[in-house]
TrEMBL record:
First and last residue of the signal peptide: 1-28
Coiled coil: none
Domain SGNH hydrolase-type esterase residues, every copy: 51-241
Molecular functions per Gene Ontology: phosphatidylcholine lysophospholipase activity
Official protein name in the record: SGNH/GDSL hydrolase family protein
TM annotation in the entry: none
Amino acid sequence: MNLNRRKFLLKSTVGVAALSSIPGIVSASISSSETRNKLVFNSEDIILFQGDSITDAGRDRENESPNRGGSFGGGYAFLAAANLLNAMPEKNIKIYNRGISGNKVFQLDERWEKDCLDLNPEVLSILIGVNDYWHKRNGKYDGTVEIYENDYRALLKRTLKSLPNIKLVLCEPFYVLETKAVDETWVEPMKKYQAAAKRISDEFNTIWVPYQKVFDEAIKHAPGTYWTGDGVHPSMAGAQLMAEAWLKAVGA
């Protein structure tokens, strides 16, 4: 093999590896034009992650202190928060995780005073919606996509009424096919919930984290079960993928 051929193969291999890595997957999914509305983090900012079990990730709910590993569990919120704290030690930001497993939008609303408004955050990130569909699917809930959208809109209006200067990050509810719990019958119903979440994001001019696009790209590089066992709750790799997508979307 001549030297030029060897160099070509080396460059090709490196290029494929870079694309297959998590940063490469995120870059292929979230364009620069989608991150123009970057968050500006100021000194003493309070950042709050909210949602269901994907955000909860097994956190310690007995000690919900900010910037504490046990208070975050082992998911994307922990990884994203750790990155922010590492990148901005001089700003003394405080980051909370108040996701609770099993929550739907109306359950966020029921605890919103304590778990959001009383914390007075400058930045609020919400990932909610999979249970609004999944619990309906398994007979544990009789909600509809219209209820989801109306409740979500009302929750954000309530938030902005109390915290008019808050910066909002809405994360797309997602699913991954060919996994333990998710099959093709999820696709069309979940698209409706995703569309509702995107409408609300556009209406309130929030930062949008397109998780479905990210996972759709990810499964081109590794099977769905590599990223999430059941199609909803991320693996270690899936949590890192989510954290990097969140950071890219907010411009951190």
